[in-house]
# Entry
Amino acid sequence: MTTKTSMHIDPYERTWMIVSVVLLLVFLTAVSVAGFAMGIQLPNPERRVDPQTVATDPDSPWYKDNVGLRELAPGKYEAYILAQAWQFTPNEITVPAGSRITFYVTSRDLQHGFKLENTNVNMMIIPGQVSKLSVTLDTPGEYNFICHEYCGTGHAIMFGKVIVTP
Amino acid sequence: MKYEVTPSEKKFVGWHLVIAIAALSIGSLFGPLQAFEHAGLDLYPYLKPVFQSYYQGLTLHGVLNALVWTTFFITGFLDLTIIYGLKRSFRYPVLNKVGFWIMTVGLVTTAIPLLLDQATVLFTFYPPLKAHWAFYLGLTLVVVGSWVEGWGMIGTYMAWRKENPGERTPLMSFGALITVVLWQIATLGVATEILTMLLPWSLGLIDGVDPQLARTFFWFTGHPLVYYWLLPAYISWYAMLPKEAGGKLFSDSLARLSFWLFLILSTPLGFHHQYVDPGVPATWKYVHATLTYAVFFPSLLTAFTVVASLEQAGRKRGGQGWLGWIRALPWGNPSVAAQLLAGVLFFFGGISGITNASYNLNLVLHNTAWVPGHFHLTVASAVTLSFMGISYWLVPFLTGKQLWKPKWAVVQSWLWFIGMLIFSNAMHVIGLLGAPRRVPLGLAPYVPEEWSGTLLRVGIGGAILFVAVYLYVVIMASTVFSKVTATEKTEIPEAEALINPQATPGWLDRWAPWLVATFALILIAYGPQLIVQISNIALNAPGGRFW
# Structure
């Protein structure tokens, strides 16, 4: 027995399919404009490090004497932050309003997270990798950066803050 | 002609459900404890002799509910849809049996270190948090067992195909096969992660792991895993629910097209879980973002077909006007009510899901409480509430008993719906405010006072869900242990399509082109990054136990 085959699509369903595709294209366009025209970008590979020496090698930017804020130019900073169970080092940095900060964060032990409240800075911190994102902080206040990946018993207390002074 | 499922086949499927529901009833103990903790009532200290921490509870909740309840329910349900749809018994029943036993042994092997606080690594088990080796071994066995059962299903299909050349595969079996094949391909990622890194490392054979590469392998599996959970619910929504609602499937061919699109599109987009990973280039994240939008298309198709089928059923039952057909649906049937409510929750879950998936928008949400808010609408509602609805006919069918207090089963569905609306809405809100996920927020020093109202709603939602889940367990147990045999025989609801499936084009029932497309897309989307990440592997993170 053979039946004639054909792809039957109801007119309403055809309309729905077209609307669906258009809707998804609109979404894609929106995030693309935000990403490429407005520069809201995701982390890119920065460099690899050895998690076992990254905090103990005196030449490493994450060595205890080297971590922290560096002023590159007026209002332009780099912040080298070390994550380990269950603290960030340093856990407090202070910059004037309007500063542009680029964070370089790595972990010496486990996976951690780094989310700077009320900004677009949100990164996984992974042993062996360096996470890098930049942000301009215009509004004075305190911005917590919070570890958002489970890292054992003390996970809930792992945070630090950026203080933006007027 | 109908296939009479034999008593031994019913028993076999039934044992899958017994384990699934047992896992759910243990795993769900902890959900409310987490929700109460958020609301300011930490009960974990009182459990100290047995359970050591919030995180151990969270791990048990995730592993037992998201991995065990789903996998066992799904495997049993797919077994049934294969034999009932194809109208033949298993071709190699030994494969199905052996697979089931491997899964069960794996479950016990995983459970022991979990219960002893030796594997408090959450259900994503990101290294280098190091669990006891038995945890990884057990998980491997669960996956391998599900593969073997899958081979039993595929073998049964191949035998049927030989006996029935030219026939359209019955839709429920067709959906089951796609789910099985998707799973076999998807789990290659996590299998590689465990076998090449986690297991040898936990056994002391290698000193460290590469955590970034491990994440890439994990999320190769992690996203299609979502579709492995979801497709069995879709099988029910497409191939069963229209019948239960009193109607027919609106479009057989588009149902099949959706299933194929899920097969080819659900794997090559795992980087959307790694948008904020440092070791993956943004360009590849963007490619995966684009493919993620593509996989929303078959979900939107599903929304249309399922709603159109239901509308047609509602109108046949006398429903009129734009929305009157909704009222006319058989809301008194708990199986229907549960699945309709699951569909409504999934609508919201779809919205929060596409938000997560939206590339740079993810910077606002990644690893915040929004994420568990989202997946409680998907895996814990679209999937779990549908599975509950399915069990309201499936368990009577398997046991020959009457469903215990069907009205209570309707109440159960509504309780789940209301509890989840409150819980997940609060979780989304608190996530947008910046609350991280996986944190006992009651202990966190950075939680501001303003969040307390929302956190209280998390607790209230959790309390309602707690009642709903154990009402389900009670209804199931009371049905199974009831001494009253059913007066009416429960049948498997198999929906007819409006148009004879034989008229569906043949290319929608042929495997080769779709499999080629599946592998090609995986190669394109994952190949280059896998080569880069594997060739730069550095096994230098020793990790350890940090709990």
